[in-house]
Amino acid sequence: MRNNVQKFSLVSAGVVIGVLLSLNFSAIADKAEPQPLPVEDLRAFTDVFGRVKADYVEPVEDKKLIREAINGMLSGLDPHSAYLDENAFKDLRESTQGEFGGLGLEVGMEDGVVKVISPIEDSPAFKAGMRAGDYIIKLDDTNVRGMTLNDAVKKMRGKPNTTITLTVARKGENKPLTFTLTRSVIKVQSVRNKLLDDGYGYVRISQFQEHTVEDLAKAIDSLYKQNKGTLKGFVLDLRNDPGGLLDAAVGVSAAFLPSNTLVVYTDGRVQDAKMRRSTTKEDYARRGDDPLKNLPKDVKNLPMVVLVNGGSASASEIVAGALQDHKRAIIVGTQTFGKGSVQTVLPLSATTGIKLTTARYYTPNGRSIQAKGIVPDVEVEEARVSAIDGFGGFRVREADLAGHLENTQGGEPDKSGDKPKDKEAAKPAAKPKAPASNKTDKADDAKAEGPIEFGSKQDYQLQQALNVLKVQQIVVNKLGSKS
Question: Which residues are catalytic?
Answer without folding.
Answer: 314, 325, 339
